[in-house]
């Protein structure tokens, strides 16, 4: 859902000249500004160099749930995969702005929080202009749908409660539209902090 929302805002933004979407399957979106790079094996980043040239920013929206996963498997799909693409991009353009969608609670005691923190630290060291996006609850507003079955079920069950959550704890929730705007603005003009919590994202994404 994050990638879908961010892609929509990039294509709507007149200041964004072009977008390259990297994934295992097509986005299903057709737009003059959009190119796609399909990789059935997302660890095949070593041969992508020529396709990655000419871009100023990377919005890394890929992520997996740690539910039922070993630390080794979760590390491979979180740390190893992210750093593989990040290092490929850094070789091409070390001045690139890299925004990594992490999670609220990163740095805590749980396994996933520790792996995410190691990933954040490595990206902050790799790119002088990197921002960690610590996302909490995301509200889809333009039909964004998760590819993960349990996430789709969870959103179907809890969707009626989202307005209540927004009223009771507005700082814990952000719309896909607001998140996309926040990431574009951070890439374009910078942000006051390199680790962006929900309050920072909401401020950046305000209309």
What does this structure look like?
With 207 residues, this protein is of the alpha/beta class. 43% of the residues lie in helices and 15% in strands. The strands form three sheets. The chain has a four-stranded parallel beta sheet, sandwiched between helices. Strands 1-2 form a two-stranded parallel ribbon. A two-stranded parallel sheet has the order 6-7. Helix 1 (2-12) crosses helix 6 (176-189), helix 2 runs parallel beside helix 3 and helix 6 (176-189) crosses helix 7. The model has no long low-confidence stretch (mean pLDDT 89).
- Roughly how many Å apart are the termini? 20 Å
Please state the average pLDDT score.
89
Question: Share of helix among residues?
Answer: 40-55%
Residue runs with pLDDT of under 50 for 5 or more positions: none
**Continuous helix count:** 7
Gyration radius, in Å: 16 Å
Task: Kindly report the spatial arrangement of strands forming the biggest sheet.
Answer: 3-4-5-8
Order of helical and strand elements: HEEEHEHEEHHEHEH
Give the strand content. Answer: 5-15%
Structural class, from helix and strand content? alpha/beta
**Overall strand count:** 8
Q: Please outline the major beta sheet.
A: 4 strands, parallel
- Overall geometric form: globular
């Amino acid at each position: 859902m994050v990638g879908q929302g961010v892609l929509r805002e990039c294509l709507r933004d007149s200041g964004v000249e072009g977008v390259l979407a990297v994934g295992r399957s097509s986005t299903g979106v057709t737009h003059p500004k959009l190119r796609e790079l399909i990789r059935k094996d997302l660890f095949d980043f070593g041969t992508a160099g020529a396709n990655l040239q000419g871009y100023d920013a990377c919005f890394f929206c890929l992520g997996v749930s740690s539910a039922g996963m070993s630390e080794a498997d979760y590390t491979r799909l979180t740390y190893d995969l992210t750093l593989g693409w990040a290092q490929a991009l850094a070789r091409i353009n070390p001045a690139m702005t890299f925004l990594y969608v992490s999670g609220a609670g990163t740095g805590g005691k749980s396994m996933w929080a520790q792996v995410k923190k190691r990933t954040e630290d490595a990206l902050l060291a790799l790119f002088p202009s990197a921002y960690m996006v610590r996302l909490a609850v995301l509200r889809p507003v333009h039909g964004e749908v998760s590819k993960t079955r349990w996430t789709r079920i969870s959103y179907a069950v809890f969707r009626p409660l989202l307005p209540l959550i927004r009223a009771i704890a507005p700082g814990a929730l952000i719309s896909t539209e607001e998140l996309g705007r926040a990431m574009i603005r951070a890439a374009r003009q910078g942000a006051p902090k390199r680790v962006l919590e929900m309050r920072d994202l909401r401020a950046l994404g305000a209309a």
